[in-house]
């Protein structure tokens, strides 16, 4: 066999082996990411999730503009997980999550289910009521107060827990404003791989997120302020 032909055959064989190895590596990596997402969210492809939507704090029949966009981003996240969603209104939905991963969206003033989740499962977390003072709708976690500055700064809770007697977790996403709600959903969608690698426990956590520069950056400048898990779940 001529040396040139032998070199060509060796090159082809090497390319085929490299391509096959790359394909196997990519497939294994994709499978690993899928397992990681399933563990984090408790959702396997094809499963149905429960999304409980809040309403405008002043009107139970109206959903705020930013909350609509937050729900749309939740839908995009579930589509990436290969899951489907059933949407319920906080004002009318009652009962457990029925073996489905639940996403409960909006603060306690706009979502009755959020208020119940906080009272029953996160006793270390509270929101001050609406008002005109500087501490209006401040977020209280333990002895720490996180204030809201209209159109500039907001905070949100991103928590995960499984209620007693239920088989699937609840993701509680509640902010001081609709912009903060939307920022928290944005953070969950784009940073859950990092959380999977860094959180001490994926079964139960409570994170405080900060959404800043709202007038300039809307909901997108959202950062993790602190992990408040120990405080949030302690009476």
TrEMBL record:
Domain of life according to the entry: Bacteria
Protein name (database record): Secreted protein
Classification of source organism: Bacteria, Bacillati, Actinomycetota, Actinomycetes, Kitasatosporales
């Amino acid at each position: 066999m001529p040396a040139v032909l032998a070199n060509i055959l060796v090159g082809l064989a090497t390319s085929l082996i490299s391509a096959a190895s790359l394909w196997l590596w990519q497939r294994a990596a994709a499978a690993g990411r899928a397992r990681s997402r399933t563990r984090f969210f408790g959702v396997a492809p094809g499963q149905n999730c429960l999304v409980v939507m809040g309403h405008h704090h002043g009107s139970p029949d109206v959903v705020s503009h930013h909350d609509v966009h937050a729900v749309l981003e939740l839908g995009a996240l579930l589509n990436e997980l290969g899951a489907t969603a059933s949407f319920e209104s906080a004002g009318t939905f009652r009962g457990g999550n029925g073996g489905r991963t639940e996403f409960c969206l909006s603060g306690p003033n706009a979502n009755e289910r959020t208020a119940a989740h906080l009272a029953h499962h996160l006793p270390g977390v509270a929101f001050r009521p609406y008002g005109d003072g500087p501490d209006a709708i401040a977020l209280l976690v333990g002895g720490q107060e996180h204030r809201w500055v209209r159109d500039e700064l907001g905070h949100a809770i991103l928590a995960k827990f499984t209620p007693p007697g239920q088989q699937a977790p609840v993701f509680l996403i509640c902010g001081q404003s609709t912009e903060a709600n939307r920022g928290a959903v944005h953070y969950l969608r784009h940073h859950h791989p990092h959380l999977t690698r860094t959180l001490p426990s994926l079964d139960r956590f409570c994170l405080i997120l900060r959404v800043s520069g709202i007038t300039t950056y809307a909901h997108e400048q959202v950062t993790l302020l602190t992990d408040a898990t120990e405080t949030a779940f302690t009476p």
